[in-house]
Automatic annotation (TrEMBL):
Official protein name in the record: CIC11C00000002444
Organism: Sungouiella intermedia
Superkingdom of origin: Eukaryota
InterPro entries xref list: WD40/YVTN_repeat-like_dom_sf, WD40_repeat_dom_sf, WD40_rpt
WD repeat spans: 253-287
The keyword Ribosomal protein belongs to this UniProt entry's keyword annotation: no
Length: 346
C-alpha cells in the first residue's frame, strides 16, 4: 500500500495536521492562515479525501485541537485560542480573552501557540503552550484560563487523564498533575543529549517517549520508584549508512505516534521515512517508502486504519520576523492505509 497525495491548494508551511478522535475528519492548518477540513472516506478500501470546508484567517494558524465534544479550536500567532465556526466559516472571539499582541503584530513568533491539547475525560479543557514557555489551561465553557504558568521554552507537549508533560529546552521534562496545577509534580532531565523534538504518552499512560535532533528515541516512565526507573532506555533510529564512507547520516526524529491496538510506535523523520517499532523490544518491524521531503507532522485516525504525514520546511521556526519571505519547498500532505500485517508486531 503506497501513499496518496492529499489534494491541497498552494499552502504555506504546515502548522498542524489532526484527525478527529470521533470520525475521519482531517483538519489541516498552515502559517499563511489557511484552515482546511477534509473527510477521508475509504469506500472499497481506497482513501477518497474530500474537501468539506475552507477559509482563511488574518493571523497565522499555528496549532489546532479537536475536543471529544466535536468542538474544534486553533491557536494563532497572536497568542489567542479561538473556536472554529464551520457553519459560518469564521473564528470566534478568543476563549481566553487575553491576546498578547494585536493580530497585525507579527514581528515575533515567540508568543505564538505551538501546542494545543485536550485532556482525556475533560471535554471542556484545552491545554495551550507558546514557543516562549507560557502554559495555560483554558476552560472553553467560561472562556477563562483556570491555570497559567511561565516556564522555559516548550518544544513538545502531550497529555493523559492525569498528566500534562512538557519537553523543554536543555533536555528538561516537566510533568504536571492535572489535579494539582500550581507547580510541576516532577522535573527531570531526559535521557537524550540533544534538543527534544517530540513527545508522546504510552497508550497505558504509564510513561512517554521522547525524540531528539540526533535520531534517538528515549522511553521513560512516570513512576519514580528506582525499580521502575531502571526500565527506561533509548534507541537510535532514522540513520542511514553511507556505503562509501561507512559513516551514518543522522536525521532528526520529528514526530511520534502510538498504534494503541497493537502498542506499536510510529516515528517520522527528516529523512522522509515513517518507521514502525516494537518499541518494548527495541526492534524496527517496518520502514515505509520515503516521501519527498522531511516529515514534520504525522497523525493516525480514530480507528487506527489511516496514517497522514505532512512535509514542510521548518525555516520559519528560525525566522525572527514572520513578515520576511522564506525560500522553502512546497508543503505536501500524504495519506496511507494501515491494514493487514504490515503494522502489527512480528
Amino acid at each position: 500500500m503506497s501513499y496518496i497525495p492529499l489534494p491541497t491548494p498552494q499552502i504555506d508551511q504546515i502548522a498542524s495536521i489532526k484527525f478527529s478522535p470521533l470520525d475521519d475528519q482531517l483538519l489541516l492548518s498552515s502559517f499563511d492562515g489557511s484552515v482546511l477540513l477534509y473527510r477521508c472516506q475509504t469506500p472499497g478500501g481506497q482513501i477518497v479525501p474530500k474537501l468539506m470546508s475552507k477559509f482563511h484567517t488574518d493571523a497565522a494558524v499555528t496549532s489546532s485541537v479537536f475536543l471529544p465534544s466535536r468542538s474544534t479550536f486553533v491557536g494563532l500567532l497572536d497568542g489567542t485560542v479561538r473556536q472554529i465556526d464551520f457553519e459560518n466559516m469564521k473564528l470566534t472571539s478568543p476563549i481566553d480573552g487575553d491576546p498578547k499582541t494585536t493580530i497585525n503584530d507579527t514581528s515575533s513568533i515567540s508568543q505564538a501557540l505551538n501546542h494545543l491539547a485536550a485532556v482525556p475525560g475533560q471535554d471542556s479543557l484545552v491545554i495551550a503552550s507558546t514557543y516562549a514557555g507560557n502554559l495555560k489551561y483554558l476552560d472553553v465553557r467560561t472562556h477563562r484560563p483556570v491555570f497559567q504558568h511561565k516556564t522555559s521554552k516548550i518544544f513538545a507537549l502531550d497529555t493523559t487523564a492525569r498528566y500534562v508533560t512538557l519537553g523543554q529546552a536543555s533536555q528538561l521534562v516537566q510533568i504536571y498533575d492535572v489535579r494539582k496545577w500550581n507547580l510541576p509534580c516532577q522535573t527531570r532531565t531526559s535521557g537524550l543529549k540533544y534538543q527534544i523534538t517530540a513527545l508522546r504518552n504510552f497508550p497505558s499512560g504509564e510513561g512517554y517517549v521522547l525524540s531528539s535532533l540526533d535520531g534517538r528515541v528515549s522511553v521513560e516512565y512516570y513512576d519514580e520508584l528506582p525499580e521502575v526507573q531502571q526500565l527506561k532506555f533509548a534507541f537510535k533510529c532514522h540513520r542511514h549508512k553511507d556505503k562509501l564512507s561507512g559513516t551514518d547520516s543522522v536525521y532528526p526524529v520529528t514526530t511520534l505516534r502510538f498504534h494503541k491496538q497493537t502498542n506499536t510506535l510510529f516515528t517520522g523523520g527528516a529523512d522522509g521515512h515513517v518507521c514502525l517499532w516494537d518499541w518494548q523490544r527495541r526492534k524496527r518491524t517496518k520502514q515505509f517508502v520515503a516521501v519527498d521531503g522531511a516529515i514534520s507532522h504525522m497523525d493516525i485516525n480514530h480507528d487506527e486504519s489511516m496514517l497522514v504525514v505532512g512535509t514542510t520546511d521548518d525555516l520559519y521556526l528560525r525566522a525572527r520576523d514572520y513578515n520576511v519571505d522564506v525560500d522553502s519547498k512546497r508543503s505536501m500532505v500524504h495519506l496511507r492505509r494501515l491494514e493487514g500485517r504490515e503494522w502489527t508486531k512480528r
